[in-house]
Amino acid sequence: MFPKPKSALVPNTYAFESEPMVKPTGFREYDARWLFNKEINLMGVQALGMGLGALIAELGVKQEIVTGHDFRGYSASIKYALISGLMAAGCKVHDIGLAVTPMAYFAQFDLDVPCVAMVTASHNDNGWTGVKMGANRPLTFGPDEMTRLKEIVLNAAFNNKAGGSYQFHENYPARYIADLTNRPKLKRRLKVVAACGNGTAGAFAPQVLEAIGCEVIPLDTELDHTFPKYNPNPEDMEMLHAIRDAVLAHKADVGLGFDGDGDRCGVVDNTGEEIFADKVGVMLARDMSAINANAQFVVDVKSTGLFVTDPVLQKQGAKTVYWKTGHSYMKRRTNELGALAGFEKSGHFFFNKPFGRGYDDGLVSAIAICEMLDRAPGKSMADLKDALPKTWSSPTMSPHCADEAKYGVVDAVVKHFETLQQNGAQVAGQNIRDLVTVNGVRVTVADGSWGLVRASSNKPELVVVVESPVSEQRMRDMFEAMDSVLRTHPEVGAYNQKI
User: Fold this and answer.
1) Which residues are catalytic?
2) Which of its termini does the chain have fewer beta carbons within 10 Å around, N or C?
3) Exposed / middle / buried, residue 226 (Cβ in 10 Å: 0-12, 13-18, 19+)
């Protein structure tokens, strides 16, 4: 028998060292995240391993799993606690050691192992830990699997048995790096800033970029789990400003920034300007659809409307489907449709053959960006960006809305716009051209301006984004149209930021 996890225990007590602690909120929609020693202890991680092993058996999948850990002061100890639980459940564990998350995904294919459990807090601040899990490569768990895992762990409904074993794969990163770099070298000598924020990617990104033929300017690539400069997150302004400064100082062709576990890549052009991930996706879609006929792409509902309206993509016969926000949803949909690639506004990109194996890998994204530049001799990153049609887009805006109320509010907003469309009514002075309701509602009007309202997956908030290909005023008109509907719901509070 193994005790049922407690939701809270006090550190430096007998109970903390003798019982498992697992705070229920750590089970998210498609992965798990906790504050170590405040929301989960090592015995709780062991319980998680037992629960994951039981779930794998319940799913009818062979109990064989890849594990790895990111570069934080406590990640290795958490991984070994997880491994002890997995082995108790009867799993054969393949440990690849210190790794970026996509290295663990690669190992599923390379070692022919069906399951994965990567210990990482991704781009979260120090103090956080978590696990990204999957049992059907290249996919990771979604809400159904995470809900069932939570039930098993919190009820201690384990099914432990003999037969577990452990194998460490020595020097495994060399196999991952060889796989990424087994390609023709770039014809163009690109000068690239590789920024890693002292996170895990620093051990691998410079080698990979040099091996494909880049001149690499390393920026904060020394591993240091105190993250002395800034948190390794290419969406944070501190990291982007550091990349900008390095690009300008070294007259680099492009700056590439990798998050803490290496599954996302941020881009700064040769003028030092950040290019948001959805616009990078449009640039890559242009490049990829030029050499792949009838290319299909999947993008999340927060992404730019250029995927549909861009004349170059239209001319090249590219088709795009908008889908739910979230790396697990996007990965699954890209896989189901056999799309060439999926692009999420957060920077998770999913490349299928011939570019990748369907999972998100910041280094695969970096290589794709370098190859795009290689196929555009004489053009800079800024030239490629400036060649896109101009759009005016808002940042992500989040009005407060309680977790208990947010989904009901969004359902009502969806119904409101569906009724307007049925009645031929106008939004922001124009007819509705298209409604996408896979994840909240995205309303596109006749001139291509659009607005999105959805519920946040992990905070007591709504998410509002607007964009117009016409003018800043039309963008503001769409915001007023969306916000005026939200203001009819008293449950919706103040925004964190507004245009």
Assistant:
1) 122
2) N
3) exposed
